[in-house]
Amino acid sequence: MFKPRIELKPEDFYTNEQGYKVFTEKYHLKRGYCCKSGCKHCPYGYDKKTDSFK
């Protein structure tokens, strides 16, 4: 299923010390679903270690 890309705005992410893009909780909520990748700021409560939602 095709999902349209979300235009990134400055408040949607920051760059960490290693140079990676880290998406904010605001971005995840705008996207509207959990990707189950264990994102640092996941607002959906997904735990990658247990593959479950809290």
Task: List its traits.
single chain; 54 residues; alpha+beta; two-stranded antiparallel sheet; 1 helix; 13% helix
Topology:
Elements: E1 13-15, E2 21-23, H1 25-31, E3 46-47, E4 52-53
Antiparallel strand pairs: 1-2, 3-4
What would you say this structure looks like, in words?
The chain has a two-stranded antiparallel sheet with strand order 1-2. The protein has a two-stranded antiparallel sheet with strand order 3-4. Strand 1 (13-15) and strand 2 form a beta hairpin. It is an alpha+beta fold and 54 residues long. 0% of the residues are buried. 13% of the residues lie in helices and 19% in strands. It contains one helix and four strands; from the N terminus they run E-E-H-E-E.
Distance between the termini: 27 Å
Number of strands: 4
Gyration radius (Cα, Å) is 12 Å
What general outline do the C-alpha atoms trace?
A: globular
Low-confidence stretches: none
Mean pLDDT: 92
Q: Hey, roughly how much beta strand do the residues contain?
A: 15-25%
**How would a crystallographer describe the biggest sheet?**
2 strands, antiparallel
Question: What is the number of helical segments per DSSP (H or I, 4+ residues)?
Answer: 1
Major beta sheet, strand line-up: 1-2
Order of helices and strands: EEHEE
Helix content: 10-25%
Structural class label: alpha+beta
